[in-house]
Amino acid sequence: MKKLTIKAFVGIGMLSSISYILMLLNFPIPPFPGFLMIDFSDIPALIAVLIFGPVAGILVELFKNILDYFMTGSATGVPVGHIANFVAGILYILPTYYVYNKLKTKKGMTFGLVVGTLIMAIIMSVLNYFVIYPAYTFFLNMPAMSAPEIRTVVVTAILPFNIVKGLLITIVFMLLFARMSPWINKQNSYRNAV
Predict the structure, then answer these.
(1) Domain edges within the chain
(2) Please, what sign has the CA dihedral across residues 87, 154, 132, 37?
(3) pLDDT tens digit string along 58-85?
(4) Residues contacting residue 9 through CB under 8 Å, at least 6 positions apart
(5) pTM of the prediction?
(6) pLDDT in tens, 181-194
(7) Is 2 helix (H, G, I), strand (E, B) or coil?
(8) How far apart, in whole angstroms, are the C-alpha atoms of residue 46 and residue 96?
């Protein structure tokens, strides 16, 4: 693994701030519960991962969530939602990066984004069932939901929400990628030459 350069650190810092701002501009989608919010804060992480590599994308996801936790706090007092957002972001950007790296085409990017969406949606459903919902219940001091109740929420809300969120990010990112791909490829070739 190559070391991150000063240019990479500056890029990661800028993309993290943009990602944090985009995280604040979240909004609900009517058929889903109000606590499930869409935002486009994974787009700067996707740009970071494509230009600077996987570590950069992970750092953007991390810094965005740290900033949001310290600026807005958490209903539970602990960053359960922020940890979930961090994990979801990584599960989305890393498969996208690895698929795109193999194919290096616009169709490859679209395929990578769809694969990232599916991986993120499936794994986050499992994590919500076994880890995230129980953690919220514990930290909010609420009565525990039964296994069938959690399964219903995961199947009817969490899984479809993550698929919709991933597809919306895919559409917006592909519109940007169509314009930015020459610049991203130029930055990539510069990074590989150094």
Answers:
(1) 6-193
(2) positive
(3) 999 999 999 999 998 887 678 889 999 9
(4) none
(5) 0.90
(6) 888 777 766 565 55
(7) coil
(8) 8
